[in-house]
């Protein structure tokens, strides 16, 4: 009887903890969504109300018709796509070399690349700005995408390297014994096997670019190349903030990435755990 009571108490504690964590995680999202449907009077009502007294789509109309947010969303999609493609191209090549080619400084070099992920972005902001400026890519989508590679390349290289290292090299040797080249082994064995990991890496790179603010705010100065996180600042003036439009723009910014994550959740989970055993 005492053991049964202990199990019930432990299970209740687990469910209580999960409920608290779920509330902690979803409460800001609920406030964001509900505020986006409120009129200005409801947002600043005292006492504060969670639900609007009268629902309105005026904030979404402001965001979609009277601001640069649609253009900024398109820029974010283009830049995120460029970053994901370039990251996969660069990091697959580097990750394969680090995982397959045996040379003395392979592991120290891999650790050194990973250190780039631990450096604050403000430290590398000026060097990256000078490189982008020298390439005459300032205020362009390509320049912002190039800057975002400084964020994605270090960790994605490590992720891809672990994915490839977890694949038995004997599979590639079998292709070469049958007369195939190393390129054939990579094309017909390595790439298909680590495809979920590459999908996760590409999604990770896209997400990093999608919500990045610091580089995008410095590299892009006009609406032609401004990304969505930077465009959110247009609803804040010197003395006033349009919280309804800000929350509506935040919802518009969040929905596409949630849909993308739900579609690719299976690949993302498999990719993150696929190379966790062998490092």
TrEMBL record:
It is a multi-pass membrane protein. Keywords: Cell membrane, Membrane, Transmembrane, Transmembrane helix, Transport. It is found in: Cell membrane. Its main location: membrane. GO terms for biological process: transmembrane transport. The keyword Iron does not apply. InterPro entries: BP-dep_ABC_trans_perm, MetI-like, MetI-like_sf. It comes from the Bacteria. The chain crosses the membrane at residues 12-34, 72-97, 109-129, 141-160, 185-207, 243-263. It holds the Pfam family BPD_transp_1. One of its GO terms (cellular component) is plasma membrane. Residues 73-264 form the ABC transmembrane type-1 domain. Signal peptide: none annotated. PANTHER family: INNER MEMBRANE ABC TRANSPORTER PERMEASE PROTEIN YCJP (PTHR32243:SF18), MALTOSE TRANSPORT SYSTEM PERMEASE-RELATED (PTHR32243). Belongs to the binding-protein-dependent transport system permease family. This is Carbohydrate ABC transporter permease. It comes from Streptomyces paludis.
């Amino acid at each position: 009887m005492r053991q049964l009571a202990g199990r019930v108490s432990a299970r209740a504690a687990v469910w209580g903890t999960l409920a608290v964590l779920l509330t902690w995680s979803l409460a800001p999202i609920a406030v964001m969504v509900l505020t986006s449907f409120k009129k200005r009077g409801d947002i600043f009502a005292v006492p504060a109300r969670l639900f609007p007294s009268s629902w309105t789509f005026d904030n979404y109309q402001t965001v979609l018709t009277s601001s640069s947010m649609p253009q900024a969303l398109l820029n974010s999609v283009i830049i995120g796509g460029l970053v994901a493609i370039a990251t996969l191209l660069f990091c697959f090549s580097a990750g394969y070399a680090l995982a397959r080619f045996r040379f003395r400084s392979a592991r120290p070099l891999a650790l050194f690349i990973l250190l780039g992920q631990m450096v604050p972005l403000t430290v590398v902001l000026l060097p990256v700005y000078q490189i982008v400026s020298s390439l005459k890519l300032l205020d362009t989508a390509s320049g912002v995408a190039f800057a975002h590679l400084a964020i994605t390349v270090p960790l994605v290289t490590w992720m891809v390297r672990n994915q490839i290292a977890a694949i038995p090299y004997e599979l590639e040797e079998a292709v070469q014994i049958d007369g195939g080249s190393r390129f054939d082994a990579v094309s017909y064995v390595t790439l298909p096997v680590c495809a979920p990991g590459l999908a996760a890496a590409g999604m990770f790179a896209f997400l990093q670019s999608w919500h990045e603010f610091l580089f995008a705010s410095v590299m892009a100065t006009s609406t032609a190349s401004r990304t969505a996180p930077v465009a959110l600042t247009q609803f804040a003036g010197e003395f006033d903030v349009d919280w309804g439009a800000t929350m509506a723009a935040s919802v518009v910014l969040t929905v596409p990435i949630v849909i993308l994550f739900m579609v690719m959740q299976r690949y993302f989970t498999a990719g993150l755990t696929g190379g966790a055993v062998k490092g």
